[in-house]
Automatic annotation (TrEMBL), chain A:
Keyword Nucleotide-binding in record: yes
One record GO biological process: Mo-molybdopterin cofactor biosynthetic process
Entry's Gene Ontology cellular component terms: molybdopterin adenylyltransferase complex
Protein name (database record): Molybdopterin synthase sulfur carrier subunit
Coiled-coil blocks: none
Molecular function in Gene Ontology: nucleotide binding
Family membership noted in the UniProt record: Belongs to the MoaD family.
Record key words, sorted: Nucleotide-binding
Gene: moaD
SUPFAM superfamilies: MoaD/ThiS (SSF54285)
Family matches, as CDD domains: Ubl_MoaD
UniProtKB/TrEMBL annotation, chain B:
Protein's organism: Aerophototrophica crusticola
Subunit organization: Heterotetramer of 2 MoaD subunits and 2 MoaE subunits. Also stable as homodimer. The enzyme changes between these two forms during catalysis.
Protein name: Molybdopterin synthase catalytic subunit
Cell cycle listed as a keyword: no
Upper lineage: Bacteria, Pseudomonadati, Pseudomonadota, Alphaproteobacteria, Rhodospirillales
Biological process, per Gene Ontology: Mo-molybdopterin cofactor biosynthetic process
Task performed by this protein: Converts molybdopterin precursor Z into molybdopterin. This requires the incorporation of two sulfur atoms into precursor Z to generate a dithiolene group. The sulfur is provided by MoaD.
Length: 83, 153
């Protein structure tokens, strides 16, 4: 699974992207976020308030109960501020 | 129909001229250009010396294409164009151009506004401002969400 982080999530986590193999129990975005929080203080800080975290799976916005699997591209980022 | 995400500036006049060139059904051409301001509008009014726009290559283009397709489904547009820049920009620099060509002005005006309102809440761009107190990420505004929601349903 390929993970991408943008804006302040990238700064806090300290990575723009990474490949991960979460445990089999991780089946949706919420489970993935919970697993990521345990990977270090940067992750825990970045993912502390999910009200300001948006998720895209394979470049489409999804809710936190959306399933995730090994081949997916999952992006975590703050609410967008373009235009 | 075109969506472009680019670091380079664009020529407003040339882009608008090209959008209606050779199409005599176009009676109205509306456009919006967003520029970098020299201060933050919310709260403290801190001066902004520059900003860097980050985006999600791939998803950005997909989202802009989806937004443009939605505009074309809602209004009788002959053509439309979205150009959005990324990278480091300074006050006065152009950020975004949205333009819609239609037989009539109502469709062109409304589609232009719709494209901007949806783009601001859906296209994956983020602004990092440079101020005298350091760099800070611009926060999403509730008023932008409200503007986008007016077009739902």
């Amino acid at each position: 699974m390929r993970l991408l982080y943008f804006a302040w999530l990238r700064s806090k986590i300290g990575l723009a992207e990474e490949s991960v193999e979460p445990p089999a129990g991780v089946t949706d975005v919420a489970g993935l976020v919970e697993w990521l929080r345990g990977r270090g203080p940067g992750y825990a800080d970045a993912l502390a308030n999910l009200a300001v975290v948006k998720v895209a799976v394979n470049q489409e916005y999804v809710p936190f109960d959306h399933p995730v699997g090994p081949g997916d591209e999952v992006a975590l980022f703050p609410p967008v501020t373009g235009g | 129909m075109a969506v472009r995400v680019q670091e380079a500036d664009f020529d407003m006049g040339a882009e608008l001229a090209a959008l209606s060139a050779g199409n005599r059904r176009v009676g109205a051409l509306a456009s919006f250009v967003g520029l970098v301001r020299d201060m933050h509008v919310d709260g403290d009014g801190q001066p902004v010396s520059a900003m860097t726009l980050e985006h999600y290559p791939g998803m950005t283009e997909r989202q802009l294409e989806a937004i443009e397709a939605e505009a074309r489904a809602r209004w009788p547009l002959e053509d439309c164009l979205v150009i959005h820049r990324y990278g480091r920009l300074e006050p006065g620099d152009r950020i975004v151009l949205v333009a819609c060509a239609s037989p009539h002005r109502d469709a062109a005006f409304e589609a232009c506004r719709f494209l901007m309102d949806w783009l601001k809440t859906k296209a994956p761009f983020w602004k990092l401002e440079e101020t005298p107190e350091g760099r800070r990420w611009v926060e999403a505004r509730d008023s932008d969400t409200a503007a986008a929601e007016r077009w739902q349903g």
